[in-house]
Amino acid sequence: MSGRHKKSCRLLRNTRLGGSLAAVTAVGATAISLIAAAPAGSSQKVDAVSAGAVATVPHDAASPKKPDTLALADKKAGNVNTEKRQVLPSASDALKLAESQVGVTEDSSGGGTKFQQWFVSSPWAERGVQRDGGKVSDYANANWCDMFVSWIGAKLGVKGMGADAFTRTHAQWFKDQGRWGENATPGAVVFFSWSGSKSIDDIDHVGMVIKDNHDGTIQTIEGNTDNAVKIRTRDKSSVVGYGYPEYGSSDA
């Protein structure tokens, strides 16, 4: 694995988007609550479809109110599934889509993937700039492991997936939603620290769990690993934790 990649999803290259640890600590939880949907059934958090499905994003207190086009998009998306009783995508659906992307690679500038192109055009890029600085266009060539995971959630309309390009704030969001743990379940979002640290502040990379091999390793599907989407076998010692989207049953 390249040295660039070891930092890739922790600090975005050639931008200020990663921000300092102090800045992330100061604003991370609040910013993440603005950009991602809470799990269904929570009595304390907004129940909305996450990522580019697209989630309802609360207005900043200091910003003039505008028509909530994101909420309208959510409402429209919800209407499509009314007759199906809002059947949620399953973990199998998410993994099938993720595995169909194996072989996608970045260009010589570190960009050019559909995941980066989607993120730049999504509301999450603007939210990231508001939080971390830089420009929306910076994401076009930024490290994309978390954009890949977010794209999967957006394409399928997975609830409780969240969306970000910065792994540490995405992981903290899962924890804040009460959707964080230590079990390697299929479809879980897995966060890694190559140092073996168990601190969210030290996360370097993210992917999705395909299965637990029950031998101290897990099989994963990851974006921006050696600059491509690949299936990997990872030692659990490098896992910081797992985020759990709200999937439906494969039998639904």
Automatic annotation (TrEMBL):
Transmembrane stretches, start-end: none
UniProt keyword Signal, yes or no: yes
Lineage: superkingdom: Bacteria
N-terminal signal peptide: 1-22
Annotated Pfam families: CHAP (PF05257)
Designated name of the protein: Peptidase C51 domain-containing protein
Keywords tagged on the record: Signal
Keyword Signal: yes
InterPro entries tied to this protein: CHAP_dom
